[in-house]
Amino acid sequence: MKHSSYIILSVLTLAMLLVSSCSDISESERLEYVKPEVQGRNILIEDFTGQNCVNCPKATAVIEQLQQQYGADTIIAVAIHSGYFGVHNSPTQVGLATDLGDTYYNHWGIESQPNGIIDRSDGIMPYDWWTNKVTYDLEQKAQVNIDLTNSYDAATNSVSMLVQLVGSDSTTVSGRLQLWAVEDSIHAYQLMPDGSRNDAYIHNHVLRAAVNGTWGDEVTVAPGQSETKSYKLTLDSSWNPAHVAIVAFVYDDNGVKQVVRRSIGARQTANNE
């Protein structure tokens, strides 16, 4: 009987210790679901432009001012040379217009240049409206995080891309992931606002190619979940790898959810100027 009492007492003591141990764990020490940290919202400006467009340098000046104010990693511009004022490359001149750019120009119904689309929402806008639109969009939350890693292989003149998408909002994002190759510091002529021709003009963030098709790949990302995709692109021999970057963005019918830009990481050499 005495032995049984000891057993009962031991069981009760152990139970009390377990209860006490659980109750002593603070709220901060208990395991909880932690939402992914939301990336700062970046802005995509699709700048429909052309080398024969005399007012297009004015739009470029607006982009440069916005990038100086907010940073080039936040204001991500893509110059889409296209349409009536676009110039295609030829043996006699450097032209920056592409069939891809013309596809976007026609799809969005661009009727004049310069004009732009910001975050693929609120339609086509003249350049003097861009600042107000950018200011508003910067106050919105990014609905998905994009982690883009590029690796350049000089031997094959190609870049491998790894994209990880992480849902960061309370709503599942179902849309498309688009990757573009863009190039900076291209020397090519440009007609200027005073009507003159500037043969030493430097063009930046010029759309060169779509990595994963004209409209990208379908993606669905739930809050706190991730999706990873990989791509590879062989660069055109006329591009300078040291000046090439990849722009990645997720969009749906309501607009762009997030956008990032990353250099491909090619080193500058004596032949890459």
Question: What's a quick, concise take on this entry?
Answer:
The protein has 273 residues and is an alpha+beta fold. It has a domain at 43-142 and 179-214 and 237-260: Glutaredoxin, CATH 3.40.30. It has helices spanning 2-23, 56-70, 99-108, 130-137; strands spanning 43-49, 75-81, 115-118, 124-125, 144-153, 158-167, 173-183, 186-187, 190-191, 197-198, 202-203, 206-210, 217-221, 226-234, 244-252, 255-263.
List the helices and strands and how they pair.
Layout lengths: L1 H22 L19 E7 L6 H15 L4 E7 L17 H10 L6 E4 L5 E2 L4 H8 L6 E10 L4 E10 L5 E11 L2 E2 L2 E2 L5 E2 L3 E2 L2 E5 L6 E5 L4 E9 L9 E9 L2 E9 L10
Parallel strand pairs: 1-2
Antiparallel strand pairs: 1-3, 3-4, 5-6, 6-14, 7-12, 7-13, 7-15, 8-11, 9-10, 15-16
Description of the structure:
The protein has 273 residues and is of the alpha+beta class. It has a domain at 43-142 and 179-214 and 237-260: Glutaredoxin, CATH 3.40.30.10. It is 20% helix and 35% strand. The chain is built from 4 helices and 16 strands. It has helices spanning 2-23, 56-70, 99-108, 130-137, and strands at residues 43-49, 75-81, 115-118, 124-125, 144-153, 158-167, 173-183, 186-187, 190-191, 197-198, 202-203, 206-210, 217-221, 226-234, 244-252, 255-263. Strands 7, 12, 13, 15 and 16 form a 5-stranded antiparallel beta sheet that branches. The chain has a 4-stranded mixed beta sheet with strand order 2-1-3-4. The chain is globular and about 55 Å long. The model is unreliable at 1-25 and 269-273 (pLDDT under 50).
